[in-house]
Amino acid sequence: MDGLFFEDEAANVYRTKNYIVEQVLCLKDDNVHTAQMCSHDTFIRRTKKRDAQYEKLFASRKHIDGKRMPTNMCIKGKEAPCERGFFM
Fold this sequence. Notes:
It is a single chain. The chain has 88 residues and is mainly beta. It has one helix and five strands; from the N terminus they run E-E-E-H-E-E. The protein has one helix spanning 48-57; strands spanning 12-15, 19-29, 35-45, 73-76, 86-87. Strands 1, 2, 3, 4 and 5 form a five-stranded mixed sheet that branches. A hairpin with a 5-residue loop joins strand 2 and strand 3. The longest helix is centred in the middle third of the chain and has 10 residues, at 48-57. The two termini are 23 Å apart.
């Protein structure tokens, strides 16, 4: 977070013990009348500078660390969140 690291599509940002995580959500349709919620999570290592920026951005949260939004599928890393899907 040597600048703001959040993607424009990030629906949720939360903190774990060692990481600040941005969560991009999308809805995938499998063409069989069912849809699945999927998540692309990017983990950024926590530092004092990043924590200070995070705390400034989310100071108004009731629970400063936030919480991961549950989904049916999770992709971790730099892959495209959904090849075919709708961003939430």
